[in-house]
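so ive been stuck on this for like two days lol. basically i have the seq below and the ligand is zinc ion, smiles is in there too. i just want the complex predicted, nothing fancy, no docking runs or whatever. if the output looks off dont worry ill sanity check it later, just need somthing to start from for the group meeting slides
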Amino acid sequence: MGRRHTFARSERLSEREAPGLEMTTLTRDRHSIRVPIPEIFQAWELLSQAADAHLQDHFAEAETLLIHANMPAVYEWAWVDWQKPSLNIRIPRPENDTKKLPKDQLDPIRAPKAATKRNVLARDGHRCRYCGIPVIDADIRKLLHSLYPAAVPWVSSVPEKQHAAFSCFWLQYDHVVPHSHGGRSDEDNVVICCALCNFGKLDYTVRQLDIADPRTRPPQPVEWDGLERLRRAPSAGLRS
Ligand SMILES: [Zn+2]
């Protein structure tokens, strides 16, 4: 359990020990639309603790931790750039960029197949390949929403009525080259990413957004299970 927290500590350490370094790096090689803020990792740690508390049958403690993880700063981080993706464009028409193609030239498979998703997840782990934040499968959020409806609010398509952390950490499968530009729905073109990096990118290219192609960096999976331990635990659905 201790090793799982290495991720958050190292992220925070780099911010504390080398202020400004991250900005310098990103100016040269921007990885994502937004740089993750410290609250993201606080919320992540709280969710992780909530899952552990739940699995130890400490339901009141789990509920409190889930409520604390619903942070306004996380909501704002995720939603500002998510709502109007066209505002994220920095270079409207990059030279030699991919273009929208007629429908008959697109991959007939729009959404990656289940086997492709499994392989991509095994390769990338539960971590956004663009901004690097942890991600959680929607099934896990649905499970916690059913167990703790007051602490994990979720109303589809009403962002302000969704739990900020589960909204932010919502696991997505992104086509790096947009499907509408001829990007394939296979392992070579699909990466794990967070909600902001997926919805904020829409079907723009990484060059239009002025971010590096995540495939030029090797995946850096961390020891974080995306709270999948809740799905596997025998007591997952039980709450007395
Ligand atoms: Zn991301």
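The chain is about 40% helix and 5% strand. The two ends are 25 Å apart (CA to CA).
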